[in-house]
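call fold(seq) -> tokens
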Amino acid sequence: MTATPPDPVTGGAGAPDVKIHAADVERHFGRGAKRVDALGPLDLDIRTGEFCCIVGPSGCGKSTFLRIVAGLVRPTAGRVEIAANSPHPAAMVFQNYGISPWKTVLANVRFGLDIQHVPRKEADARARDWLGRLGLAQFADQYPAALSGGMQQRVSIARALAVEPEILLMDEPFAALDAQLRTILQDELLEVCQADQRTVLFVTHSLEEALLLGDRVLVMSSRPGRIIAERVPPFARPRTGAVRTSPEFAEMQAELWALLRGEVETATAGATS
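ret:
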């Protein structure tokens, strides 16, 4: 769906510092009696350089919205506008890693650069740089089967960052990992994203993860997903994993769960009825 660029005074992708603008976004699946209203209407502005986390019950449309922003799914109604300075402004990290088992770690990380026809020497250098930053330099010539789940997800993150996207879209990237690996990768992602201040839209079920990583946390309702609350974690940047132990962290986590619990119960009841 297309529309005239919005007035910078009232918001939208044309407004100062707004990177992603979503207006009246809806997504339906199926038709007639089988129609499922999955998402919306949803309105949202995300600022340039903001790390925005979305939490909500299963099936509320969080991942669907992420895919709409990525251009992988078309909205049924409404529009998403991105203030882009490049032809391929977004890169996505999936929960299931999405890396190719027949490619080496280096080739996987270089994949997006190959698609963009970046010269091989430059592509290799950029891929190796990100492998080094994520602690994978010594595994460049290995295949994914030789890596742990946490290491494979590092490869996926390195591949996304190697193309230097303006926007990083992350769909529950640590959900399949055990608690210890998840904590380590959360801290690593926090350090990387604070270093380059990239715009990040991050979907998660974990309130702890959202509060640790996010500049802003959005709470979505049960299906069809709408934004019902937003909170700004009161933790200065640069931020470290130490904030997990603060009283303010526990207090805000409890507050968000109070907001979210009814939506989770509604979603669960709908799934079993």
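Helices lie at 62-70, 105-115, 120-133, 149-162, 179-196, 207-213, 247-272.
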